[in-house]
Structure formats: C-alpha cells, structure tokens
Known about the structure:
This protein has helices at 5-18, 44-62, 71-74, 84-101. It is mainly α.
Amino acid sequence: MTLSLQECTNLICEIYVQFIPPGQPAPKVNAETHLFGANSLLDSSALVSLLVEVEQQINDAVGTEILVADERAMSQRRSPFRNIGTLAEYVVMLLNEKSDVA
Length: 102
C-alpha cells in the first residue's frame, strides 16, 4: 500500500495542527504552510516532534520503515522541510522508492 500526494498532504496537515502552540489562533493549514522560519508557528523542537510523528503515522499506515529526517534529506539543496507540500512530496518519493525495491 502507498499514499497519494494528497493523502500524505492531508495527513501532515492533521499532524501539524497537533503541534501548534496553545493559545495560537488556528491558522488555515495547507500544502503552503511553512514548517520552519519566520512564517512558521513551530519552534525547532516542535518541528522535530512533528517529523517523528509523521514518520510513525506514515510507517504505521503503509506498513513500511521510512526515515524522513535523515542525512539525505538534510543534504538536499532545497530542504524538503520548507512547507507541508514539500514534505509530502519527499515522503511520497521515499514510499515509491521502498515499493520499487520490494
């Protein structure tokens, strides 16, 4: 089983909302929502927690073992962690690679 880009984006949006600091108004969360930087509601520890939760939920949903925050992700010229959409694209790419190997 694999996830479509839209399914993955929706799942990451749901997870993102869980990590918004208390007292913040609920923003509109979509593929363009920034994960880090000046336009993000998440601090660095919340971002790390979000990435761990994304890994766990994706792995549980698909029955695989992908690592989202690995050396490969960190060494890319354009970070896959810029926003929810780029993270979803990266996750789908990892899942497609896993299914090609299987």
